[in-house]
Write a structure and sequence with these properties.
- By secondary structure, this protein is an alpha/beta fold.
- It is built from 19 helices and 20 strands.
- The longest helix has 19 residues, at 379-397.
Amino acid sequence: MNIALVSLNVSYIHKNLALRWLYVTKPKHLDATIYEYTTKQVDLCAAKLIEDKPDVVGLSTYIFNVEATKELIIKLKAGLPQVRIYLGGPEATANPDPLWDNPIDGILMGEGEFSFWKAVEAEYTPGLQTYKGASSSVLRTDLLELERLESPYFLSFDQEDMGKRYLYAETSRGCPYGCAYCMASLDRQVRLFSEEYMDSFFDQLKDTQVKQVKFLDRTFNVDPKRALRLGKQCLSMPKDMQFHVELVGDTLHPSLIEFFKKDAVKRFRMEIGVQSFQKKTLEAVGRPCDLDKLSKVIHAFAQVGAHQHTDLIAGLPFESLALFKESYRKMIQLEPFEIQVGILKLLHGTILHGLREVYGYQAEEVAPYQITQSKWMDKLDIEAVEAVALATEKCYNSGRLKKELDAWFKQDVEPFDVMFMIGKALLSLGHPYQIKQFYQNIYEAIFDLQPGPRAFVEEAYYRQNRTRPSLLFPMEVDQELCKQLSRNDERLHHAILMKQNNRIKAVLYIHQAQVWFDCTEEGEIINEVTLSYTKSQ
């Protein structure tokens, strides 16, 4: 019997760990092959499977691929009418009923490393749902059983591309928190892989070409001593290996704060969920938080340049647009490396989904189930947040204007309102667009908000180019001053000059670097800084 283990990922660099766990739990007398395509390659995936003619197909189903997976099911059944199709994964477990509108044979509820194979061989398993609405146990796997198997992280067929794709790993399962908006809250039982198992993982990891390791643990710091031990093991890996962890910021032990600020600052990317700065909102979603401590942690990480990704969710209970503006202002003034501004997704199985009528939620019927309004936010409010989310991603997280925005938002200005205007300007850009158009649109958007809109965008525009670009605006410096600057340093004859108050900024593009000069209006050079493209800017 031939079994196809299939996933539609977001992109090539992502790997599906669930399929690899299924592969190592496979009974020896069965043959299985992993098929990974992207959500944009449904036709290609279907064609390959129809060509290979598997007897059984197992589909790994998530919120990001469920719609594409439904398309794949239809195509598979059209080409292979006799094939048996089983679904598993978080989306299939939390929202199985709509999937039964497709020609499938079963859904594996919960962690299906062993129940899937029983279903394949037509054996009874409590984790298998065989028709719409049927009750079925949501299974959890004994991690000790998994530890006895071949590691799913270093399989032979993955070796060739290890350096080109993320390595997803887990040191635990379950989440200690019961956040009302999150599917992870459905499994409150935290289970840890043993220290011996993790030691073996790192022993094998050090000899690979992996560049990015992403730990899937919902709370990496659930056990501070263990987290510090694992963190130090990460640092013992090759210097070019980077690590991603999800942290709860207000419960970080001082030893971990120091670790991420000092030893690990260049090797780790930290994801810190804030969601809101409104205490009533956080209490309503089951995530009470010491906001003062959390703010201090985020700011401390920002001060040392740590790569921290922070999250805000618009549309949570009791948070109006005015209150969300306050949350956004508090967040961006902490100057984190990145801010993800999201709209609440009303996920099946979560507490908020069950309270949708109480809170007046309306949401899209297909994944990702984003809300369109609530008791506290109407459709126009949600659209405003979407514009701010776009501006935050394109201007702040990208680094294209982060330096300028961080400086501006220290002044008496409402960050949300500024980013709303920028977001609207970016929405008006056609696709594709040139980077020059990007900055010109922003200049027009902030013209009446910023006291020096030209200087605000001009320096950022020239800083992000690696070779001399076309001028963003005509140069304002007169010929006599240009001559004086060239006499003081002949290199400035080739520089782009910008007037900024009572100073002149000049930028010169040379091989693999920019040279920036600060000059007086009389042509005297005050300062010179070289920015190399081979170093972090």
